Amino acid sequence: MTATASAPQRVTLAAARRPARRRGLAWVSLALVMAVLIIWPLVRLELRAFDNGGDAFTRMVTYPGIGRVFLNTLIVAVGSVLIAVPLGTVLAWLTLRMPPALRRVMAILPIVPLMLPAVAKVAAWTYLLSPRTGLLNTLLRSWGLGSGATGPLDVFTMTGIVVISGVTLTSFVYLFVHSSLEQRGAELEAAAAACGARPWTVFTTVTLPLLKPAVIYSTGIVFLLSLGQFSAPLLLGAPKNIDTISTLMYRVSGDYPVDYALGAALALPLLVIGLLVVVAQRRALGDERRYAAVSGRARQVGVRTSWWAAVPLVIYLLVAVVLPLLALVVVSLSPYWSGRITPSRFTFDGWATAFADPSTQQAISTTAQAVGFTIVLVVPLGYLAALALLQRTRVPAPVRRVIDLISSLALSMPSVLMGFALLLTYSTPPFRLYGTTAMVVVAYVSLMLPHAIRPQLTSMLATGPEYSEASRVAGAGPLATTWRVGFPLIRSGIGVAVSLVVIMVIHEFAVSLMVTSPGRRVIGTLLYDATNFGTAPQVAVIALLMVAITTVGIVAALVAGGARALDRV
Amino acid sequence: MSTWFSARHRGLRRSVHVGLGAVLVLALAACGSSGSADQPAKSSIDPNLGGDAAWQQIVDAANAEGKVVFYSANDEDSATVPPAFHAAYPKIQVEVQHFASGALTAKLDAEAGNTATGADVASHSSRVWWQANAARLTPAKGPAIARYWKDTGFVYANGAYTLVGGNPLGAAVNTDRLAALGATPIKTYKDLLQPALRGNVGVVPGEGSPAAEQWWYYAGQEMGGASGLQQLAALQPRLYRSGTTPLATDVASGEIAVGFYATRSSVTALADKGAPVAFVPLDPVISIGGYTGIVGNAHPNAAQVLENWLLSPAGQVALAGDGNALTPLDVSVLGAESGNARQIPKGSHVTDGVLLPEQTSFYQNVFLPTVVGRS
């Protein structure tokens, strides 16, 4: 009897284990796909550094001026952090000190600089702050500031590179800190003030400690982004021989023959620092529950508001967006860059030339294709990875940890390093994808995967499992539940993911320079080529075109993702 | 091999400047200082002249392919090649992609083995690359190479690649600013070392481009060697790593008064728009050599047709007829409609990017530390 009873039981348990095993294999496959996309190219590149007994390291340390290159990289990274973190934090804090009506409009504005492509911003600042002919310098000299025929400011210096990098990265810090401040409300500060604490005491003993996770996280992100900063050192550092690791790696990629081993040796410190920063961030934050605020629904109570709080934000927008855009518009309408604004000579020749150029049309077409294919591939992949990261899903813990690690690692890698690794991997056998749109798409999917995961994961965390469980109880299968319940619930998260991918792919520049062939230029590389071979009006026109395409892409993604997605970009 | 070619080649190898091009330089100076680009001339000589039935089959097959992709390091080719080639072969669309030689060779290497896409024909200055890849290149089969280039000595590896032209570099001068600085007119390399130009000079250091490094070796000798470069460094030159167009742009705007290592085409394009800028060829002429060959096989017949056209009088007039680039051929070969085409001065330096030890040493140990500030 016992034997006859236990046999069906064993069959049932085995049958139950089979789908579980299949599910486990599916999640392992997902982790493998992510590893192939992100880890494998990096490993393949770094193994090159150890070819021939690691003589690439000898070549690296004997490279002329290599010490200065590493020092420059560090100065750019630390300098950018010192500008971006305080500035972003102050802007976020001031936003919440504005009257509510004003806040609703102004809160979104500090992230507008992210819509300007990096190359476009840098090019614009050369028109504004070239020592002799920069429009701002000319204006400042006319006001009696500075002496002689040059200055008082010079964008082609280390200071210029650091300030432009720092101002650009301020938007990232603002995003994290503003989000943190808004979520936790101001009740604790109000309570401290009610107990008699002075404003400075409230700020140092309540506000700053509660901001610690956001500040630490954004400091790490800004440090890593500025460590791999590429556009500003490449375009502004050349006149005074200011190289960073990124620019040196790019030059190595253009030498004949390409010295992948030297590139890998140069990349290794960036790789190691990236890993260390990710680990340090996690250790510093520890258990995030320590920073939880008391209220379930945050309120900005007891906050004294003032219209004056908008002034620094307006100045920031003026510097980061308005001035560069105005410079680009003026130059795009000029017959050539003359260092002067002469409306009587304005012409649309630059616009006509750019649109008539087959390269522009081809680049827009390739960019559109690459964006489309990337979204189609990376958003579902990000959805699956986000599901895997949800604690409530039945994903084996080691697989979950691997997926988490890969997505964090991909965020911490400088673009130039990824570009170099992707070029090596996909231009050689067995792939030989160089010259095809497929190579561009594979590269973008590898780069964009982390950006497609986070917004969808956030939406999933916010919605909870109840609706999906109800759907399953009512008899719907997993696919039907995902289609009818899961997707609609995280629609805004998908919208944000698509928006981020659109922005980042259109602005992508460092990887594109390496993986795109002459016949498969994207709009970012077209802009860079224009800075090398084109006229100033051509540069300005393509830069403005990129801004326009980015805006259209974001609006389209937000329409699809719903109006609330705008707040979450 | 002609005697003057031998002399030129020895000049390349041993850095012996013969200086037989002075008259030509003066003529170029007269053209260059006018500040306007000449209209490209158009040759009526049939590029298929001398072609047999087998060649006609290639032309027919090329027409059927309908497209050819041309990578060029010469900044003018994007504008000049498509219309002129289209006039000769209206059924074949030529797509021209422009890159600096260093980036171009890296991209050609990445494309190697990829048969579906990429360049069919390329033109760039790094003969080292052409030598290393000669075995995988397809030799030119058209009639032009035998008809016009047979004894020139510019055809290498059994027709795998050919010296197709020379780009004479010089100075871009902002005429308004130069006058305001009180500097004397610039005609020679040493004229660039005037103390009056301090803080107003820009140079393209050309790191990573062997042809550019070789060019600086020759130019450095004309300036007086290491001491000349020290004088140049004392002027605190601004470095333009990204190339000749940004240099010309900054000269045109007045950001700098003089740009050194300038191409005529980049300067005259701005002068034509009203910028106070002029190209000044320097005496003696030092040109960047451009080599062409068939590098891919996505459009094998159209590649042959384009390569043949580049080597024909029609192609040479399109490339050099505006006087910006120089042709390796005797101008009389190009016919009566050669426009302002000029031959590379006999005995002048034409870079090939094959650096001799003394050239590498000069660039690495003298030029880079002195002018670029890297040791």
Description:
The complex is a heterodimer of chains A (569) and B (375). With 569 residues, chain A is mostly helical. Helices cover 74% and strands 0% of the residues of chain A. The longest helix of chain A is centred in the first third of the chain and has 48 residues. Chain A is globular. The N terminus of chain A is likely disordered. In chain B, strands 1, 2, 3, 4, 5, 11 and 12 form a seven-stranded mixed beta sheet that branches. Chain B has a five-stranded mixed beta sheet with strand order 8-7-9-6-10. In chain B, helix 3 crosses helix 13, helix 9 crosses helix 10 and helix 10 runs parallel beside helix 15. At the A-B interface, helix 23 of A face strand 2, helix 5, helix 6, strand 8 and helix 11 of B.
Provide a short characterization of the protein structure.
The complex is a heterodimer of chains A (569) and B (375). By secondary structure, chain A is mainly α.
SSE series of chain B = HHHEHEHEHHEEEHEHHEHEHEEHHEH
Main structural class of chain B: alpha/beta
| Mean of all residue-level pLDDT scores of chain A | 83
Please summarize the sheet with the most strands of chain A.
none
In terms of structural class, how would the helical and strand content of chain A be classed? mainly alpha
Which pair of chains has the greatest number of interface residues, and how are they split between the two chains? Answer: A-B, 46 and 57 residues
Strand tally of chain B: 12
Helix percentage range of chain A: over 70%
Strand content of chain A: under 5%
**Unreliably modeled segments of chain A:** 1-5, 287-296
Distance between the terminal alpha carbons of chain B, to the nearest Å? 42 Å
How large is the share of residues in beta strands of chain B?
A: 15-25%
> What oligomeric arrangement do these chains adopt?
heterodimer
pLDDT < 50 stretches of chain B: 1-38
Instruction: Report Rg of chain A.
Output: 26 Å
Q: What's the pLDDT, averaged over the residues of chain B?
A: 87
For the sheet with most strands of chain B, the description reads: 7 strands, mixed
The number of helical segments of chain B is: 15
Q: What global shape of chain B is seen?
A: globular
**Strand segment count of chain A:** 0
Topology of chain A as a string of helices (H) and strands (E): HHHHHHHHHHHHHHHHHHHHHHHHH
